[in-house]
Automatic annotation (TrEMBL), chain A:
GO terms for molecular function: ATP binding; ATP hydrolysis activity; transmembrane transporter activity. Residues 6-245 form the ABC transporter domain. Signal peptide: none annotated. It comes from Agromyces agglutinans. This is ATP-binding cassette domain-containing protein. Keywords: ATP-binding, Nucleotide-binding, Transport. SUPFAM superfamilies: P-loop containing nucleoside triphosphate hydrolases (SSF52540).
From TrEMBL, chain B:
The keyword Transmembrane helix applies. InterPro entries: ABC3_permease_C. The chain crosses the membrane at residues 20-41, 53-78, 99-128, 148-173, 194-214, 220-246, 283-306, 318-339, 379-401, 407-427. GO terms for cellular component: plasma membrane. It comes from Agromyces agglutinans. It comes from the Bacteria. The keyword Transcription regulation does not apply. Residues 79-177 form the ABC3 transporter permease C-terminal domain. This is FtsX-like permease family protein. It is found in: Cell membrane. It is a multi-pass membrane protein.
Amino acid sequence: MGTFVLEATGLVKSFGQTHALAGVDLAVRTGEAVAIMGASGSGKTTLLHCLAGIIRPDAGQVTFRSGAGGVDVTGLGERERSRLRREAFGFVFQAGLLIPELTASENVALALMLNGMPRPRAEEYARGWLAALGLAGMEDRRIGQLSGGQAQRVAIARAQVTGASVVFADEPTGALDSATSAEVMSALLHSTVGQGRTLVLVTHDAQVAERCGRIVDVRDGRIVGERAGAGAAPAAGPAAGPAAGPSAGPSAGPEVAA
Amino acid sequence: MIARVAWLLARPGRAGAAALALPVTAFAIVTTLLLGVLGGAQSFWTWTDDIGITYQALAVIALVLLVVPLLSLGGAAARLSARRRDDRLATLRLLGATPAAVGTLAVLEAAVLALAGALVGVVGYFALVPALGLIVFRGEPLGAAGVLLGWEALVAVPVGVVLLAVVSAVVGLRRVVISPLGVRTKDEAPRMHWLRFAIGAAVVALGFLLMSALQVAGSMLVVFAFLAAAFGGSLAVLNLVGPWVLRLVASGQAKRAKTPARLIAARLVLESPKAAWRQVSGVAMTSFMAVFAGTGVAVLGAIGASPDAEMADLVVDLRTGIIITVVGSFLMVACSVGVNQAAGVLDRADLYRSLGMLGMPVETMDAARRRAVLSPLRITAIGSAVIAAVVMLPITGIALIVDPLSLLVIAAVLAAGIGVVWLGLVATRPVLERAAVA
Ligand SMILES: Nc1ncnc2c1ncn2[C@@H]1O[C@H](COP(=O)(O)OP(=O)(O)OP(=O)(O)O)[C@@H](O)[C@H]1O
Ligand SMILES: [Mg+2]
């Protein structure tokens, strides 16, 4: 586990008078789970968004390394960053933010269709992932017919179905009770680090953070501490998932996708 | 309380200028149209002969056709202003504002926007007066002096527009749950019964029979009565069958969709076929009216082929009136589509932002939302034109309907209707772009 999949140096980001990030260096290894913790307003989401190429820092650099070599994420234009997010990254948000009119499997398949995969194949992969995450039989339900935990697992399937090498999760358990939150974390860890992929997670919940390999503490836009979590050992993944196995995702990695 | 939080709402929101400009523009166009039609029609009331009453009746019909879309516009504008402020609702709640207070503010804002638009509309009307004066009725141009309204109307119309905006805002807001979480969680897509279709088919058949019987009717009055009955009946059928057909087509489209935009568009329609119908029903009615009235005029022209100058004038004038009403109601529809779409985008701003983060191009989101309006619109416009043609068939005969000129006119009307709605959609793209940016 030597290579860094993401490397950020000297990240600075201000919104008007607010210094959301005040010089952050962070390197994330391939296959590890990093939890970012900190008080509300400390800059966690801003850091996650900079790492994922959603927003551009005012200063500093983010490098993403894949099989094809390194990319300077901060140097890419809007379109290329959008494409990078679509093809190489996956996202899970607090509220799921799935398209409410689509069924579970359509929401997941959409991620593949955006990369140019024909719909029947995309839906097949989607169903495989949903089954692997314990949602067999619910593929044709609309999002409103699922519980919060189930919807969150659909979001995890969507983040992973493209074979994304890094999954970013911003408080994925923030809206769930503690039992459901533990289940969702298991699903998330299994489908990421369990497959040799990388997980970068923002959370308020110490129990959730403990399950990651490394915990980074943020305060006032700086990293103020770092420690090992309990979940350093990769767990076994969802065996039935069609995309099981590191970088053997259905779209066979971002480079091949149309 | 209201006064204390009003300043919070007054600051420019995330949605930007487009969300403010759209309703104002819409209300301005509505006001100009109403004043223009009133101004044009006021000279009808100076005519005291028999045929003058016919003109007055037709003017009233045209006004009613224009007021109906105005009602939905007010509701859409209020929804838009409620949504535009969604990002500040949390703050408002912390300050102790109840949902009712927030609703009151949204209604107030709709009223202010309506007033601003109405005033612009009055200016627009004055700008239009010279052009209106050129319109020919009964063989003579109306003249600028003839279309100039007195101060009573110039006050009453803006006040009426504001009042209608407030009433429809109150009604429209009842349907909206104001919540900072824009994502709706309805559990089941509504189903619709095939019985709708059966009833619809029966009424169209009845209309067909009615029109067949018309050939034996002699007097003009009977002809008018039959026409009105067939017109009203078929329009009611359109409203009954429209959502059902849209759902049917969309469900096929959802199954076959190959691209993300097509899939999302079809699902959006399926989610609420009634809402999809409401957005485009204005075009349905207008294109229905255009075909119905257009062929009707042709028939009247044929009946009145006798060397009767008054009759010939009436036929020409009816045509003029139809064109004005068609153009007017298309403009209304474009306005209400624009305002509705802006509100719809803001409704789901969180979702659009998250899709942007996932890497969905804004073009895809835009294509999905455009298609969700334009696809029902195409079905609706063509469907209503066909129904109108079927009902008119018995009296016009196939020759008149497939006449190149009537086909050309019908096609032009449909194209114009789809074009203005498309413009309404394009106008709201900036709102989407702002919402989708992280
Ligand atoms: N788009 C923005 N415009 C203005 N200020 C912003 C914006 N995004 C973040 N900020 C500010 O930057 C700071 C860091 O915000 P950030 O969202 O990163 O915090 P966070 O650690 O994720 O907080 P939370 O736990 O509440 O989600 C905050 O003070 C916030 O108000
Ligand atoms: Mg945050």
